[in-house]
Amino acid sequence: MRLLLAEDDRALADGLAGVLAQSGFTVDQADCGLKADFLVRTEAYDLVILDLGLPRRDGLSLLRDWREAGYHQPVLILTARSRWPDKAAGFGAGADDYVAKPFEPMEVVMRAQALIRRSRGQSQPLLTVGAITVDMNQGRVWVDGRPVTLTQQEYKMLAYLMLSKDRVVSRTELIEHVYARDRDPDSNVVDVLIGRIRRRLGSELIETVRGRGFLIRTPDAA
Amino acid sequence: MRLSISTRLIGIAVVTTLALLPLFGYALSRAFLASAESSFDRQIDAYLLFLAGRLDSTKDGDIVFSRQPGDDRFEQLHSGWYWQVSRGGKVQETSRSLWDETLAPPQASPREPVDLRGPGDQALRGATLELTLGGLAEPVNLLVTGPRQQIDAEVASFNWLLVRSLGLLGLILVVALVAQIRWGLAPLRAMTEGLRQVRSGSAPRLDVRLPSDLSTVARAMNEVLAHQEELLERGRSVAGNLAHALKTPLATIRMKIDSLDDGHSLRADVAQIQRIVDHHLTLAAAAGRASGPSRRSALGESIEPVLAAVRMLHADRHIELRAELPPELRVAVDAQDLQELVGNLLDNAAKWARTRVDLRATRLGDDVLLSIEDDGPGIAESEREQVLSRGLRLDEQQPGSGLGLAIVKDLARLYRLQIAFERAPLGGLGIHLRFPGVPPP
């Protein structure tokens, strides 16, 4: 899952980015409103964590512009403005969640995970397809009730495919949602990672759709 | 005690009228008396000349009238109309009206009016004339009088008329003056009423459509009001900026604590700092509004966005949030403070609820009662009192900011709202907020 953290306070942004990365997120950072605007319009994020008091462009007006322009990624507002009129205004501008500073870092992680799930029409943290179960909150995977350990990149890719189940996901899309902006891996990396996942979870889970990408299909939808 | 301007003006007007009118009446009465006397005197003088022209003497020195005055009044007994002829201090002839009495001749210049007393101490006014008749060595003294009572009666009836008409005039003047002052001062009263409305929040500024002299005052007052609001706004924004500026570093600290071994006590410290910052932020934001010109808020319109926010914040928990907010209800609380108040209460209820939170506003006499109920575990009756006295710290165990109810307490105290707790019919906690009635705008 790839997210944009738009926060101008360096220390806070780095700290939070660290916590998010540990929880399986790929994090891009923007330290001003203009950069955040540019990144949202050019990159594919599963979530944006948006500070309202950004320099150069106010967060609330950014959010309004995005919604107007048809960008519908979930947005979590992370701000020092803790009063309810501000929260109401934030949701009014199109936010999906709101966390006031100072915050429990893990609360932001949980809320970020829940937002991404909800944006994919998935309300429960546990996703099951066939014999495979993924806990999107804990980042754990089971096969027939037996825990399986994946590397962080493997997990990110599996989680993205699970959330996008019954839909073909291209290699480019996978790279966009799993790798940070400054990394530009060879598309072979995707095939290598998919191969490793298949070896651990069984080859029938992820189908290859020739020329288009990969697909996780729920049995009843088949 | 300071007298009001209208009392002063009315006082001056009444005193002036009451002092001047009698003076004026007295002068008129004196003038009429003088005129009545002079007309009476001219009558006397005419009789005097008439009688003198008909007085004659016989050869043996007797005095005779060639013709008596034809006026009946000189025939009627004690009519006051008398004439008397005397010579050398001895009365020779009198009018029939004197009968057998005589008048003491007054010491007066000829043809000058003089007051004297007649039979039965009757007040008389008359004049004398001294003439020399042919054949008589001694001059003859002629006296003619009329009743003074005739003048007095005329003057009295004139005075009565005068008193009545001046009294009426005074009354009309006073009424007109009072009306004039009331009307003249009406704009002042309008301005006072305008100020009262500004104070109570039903008008933002004074209406300057007043007479030009007062409208200058009203404009100046509006400038003072604007200045005061600006100061409040500045103070509020300074406090707000400070609070916001503190929160980001606080968030950084909070994050670093997690990597420390001894994090727990520091976490409590950060929570304490956050509580203090939020407390002062709330007070700074609300204090000016609660004590200054208060604002009215439409309950439903203000709370609707907060309901949406609470639903979104608790989207994962699938809490059913029902709201019954009659659109016509209004409360005398600033809209933002109302949102803060209700937002915190709803958030708290949604945290504890199992499946459902009900928000209901009802009219209770003049007041508005806002009830928030949940189907959560509730609070034991014995602990409900502590909820308030301890500053509502019950929700600290829950994730989230956990300071919301302390803010509710601050705001309720600022706006003097009553808070009551009870066991909700749904099973959880029921909180009732009572807003004092809003006077009609």
User: What's the average pLDDT of chain B?
Assistant: 84
Give the overall form of chain B: rod-shaped
Q: Biggest chain pair contact, residues each? A: A-B, 33 and 40 residues
User: How is the main sheet of chain A built?
Assistant: 5 strands, parallel
Provide a count of the helices of chain A. Answer: 8
Query: How many β-strands of chain B, per DSSP?
Result: 14
How many DSSP helices of chain B? Answer: 8
Distance separating the two termini of chain A: 26 Å
**CATH top level label of the largest domain in chain A:** Alpha Beta
Number of domains of chain A: 2
Radius of gyration of chain A: 18 Å
What kind of oligomer do you see?
heterodimer
Look up the CATH topology of the largest domain in chain A.
Rossmann fold
Question: Any idea what the CATH architecture of the largest domain in chain A is?
Answer: 3-Layer(aba) Sandwich
The biggest beta sheet of chain B is recorded as: 5 strands, antiparallel
Low-confidence stretches of chain B: 389-402
Helical coverage of chain A, percent range? 40-55%
Query: Span between N and C termini of chain B?
Result: 33 Å
Question: What is the averaged pLDDT score of chain A?
Answer: 89
EC number (chain B): 2.7.13.3
Keywords (chain B): Kinase, Membrane, Phosphoprotein, Transferase, Transmembrane, Transmembrane helix, Two-component regulatory system
Transmembrane segments (chain B): 158-179
Domain HAMP (chain B): 182-233
Task: Pick out its properties.
heterodimer, A: 222 residues, alpha/beta, Rossmann fold, 2 domains, 5-stranded parallel sheet, 4-stranded antiparallel sheet, globular, B: 441 residues, alpha+beta, Helix Hairpins, Heat Shock Protein 90, 5-stranded antiparallel sheet, 5-stranded mixed sheet, 52% helix, 17% strand, transcription cis-regulatory region binding (chain A), transcription regulation (chain A)
What do these coordinates show?
Chain A: Residues 124-218 bind DNA. The complex is a heterodimer of chains A (222) and B (441). Chain A is α/β, with parallel strands linked by helices and 222 residues long. Chain A is 41% helix and 21% strand. Chain A contains eight helices and eleven strands. In chain A, α4 links the parallel β4 and β5 (97-100). Chain B has three domains: 1-200, no CATH class; 214-290, Helix Hairpins (Orthogonal Bundle); 297-435, 2-Layer Sandwich (Heat Shock Protein 90), CATH 3.30.565. Chain B contains eight helices and 14 strands. In chain B, β5 and β6 form a beta hairpin. In chain B, α3 (212-257) runs antiparallel to α4 (263-291), α4 packs parallel to α8 (404-414) and α6 packs antiparallel against α8. The two termini of chain B are 33 Å apart. Chains A and B meet through α1, α4, β5 and α5 of A and α3, α4, α5 and α6 of B.
